[in-house]
């Protein structure tokens, strides 16, 4: 199934940053898996947009440029429309991304070997600044990442 973006009731195939189209919907662009289904564009329901955005966030969590503009561009909607879809659930796009990243770090700290540095785990989840990551992690979970790694 090829990804389709609806634009003023005309459908067109999505392309990657280099302008390339995938041969099939099962392939990936730049090593990243595709979002299998996009929301229905102008006639799409906000719930469908929210689900597509959540799937895209999950797939692109390690991308340091993941933000509302990135998501809206990939899903073919405006940032305002994306913000409304999240606001309908009392969520903010940036807050949702941050929470998903922190949850992924938490899981990886429990599953990866201790030989993988915490800074590398954080980087794999989209956190480039280890100081702000540490502060966010402690604020969210009430413990330091190294204490979680140590089993505390």
Automatic annotation (TrEMBL):
The keyword DNA-binding is assigned to this record: yes
Region (Disordered): 1-29
Record carries keyword Transcription: yes
Domain HTH araC/xylS-type: 51-151
A single MF term (Gene Ontology): DNA-binding transcription factor activity
Keywords per UniProt: DNA-binding, Transcription, Transcription regulation
Superkingdom: Bacteria
Matches recorded under Pfam families: HTH_18
Protein name: AraC family transcriptional regulator
UniProt organism field: Isoalcanivorax pacificus W11-5
């Amino acid at each position: 199934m090829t990804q389709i973006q609806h634009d003023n009731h005309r459908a067109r195939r999505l392309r990657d940053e280099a302008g390339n189209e995938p041969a099939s919907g099962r392939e990936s662009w730049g090593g990243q898996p595709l979002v299998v289904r996009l929301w229905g564009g102008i006639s799409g329901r906000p719930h469908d947009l929210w689900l597509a955005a959540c799937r895209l966030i999950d797939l692109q969590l390690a991308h340091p440029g993941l933000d509302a503009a990135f998501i809206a561009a990939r899903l073919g909607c405006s940032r305002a429309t994306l913000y409304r879809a999240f606001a309908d659930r009392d969520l903010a796009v940036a807050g949702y991304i941050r929470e998903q990243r922190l949850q992924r770090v938490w899981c990886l700290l429990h599953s990866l070997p201790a030989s993988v540095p915490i800074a590398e785990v954080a980087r794999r989840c989209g956190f480039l600044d280890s100081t702000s990551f540490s502060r966010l992690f402690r604020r969210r979970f009430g413990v330091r990442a190294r204490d979680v790694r140590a089993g505390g």
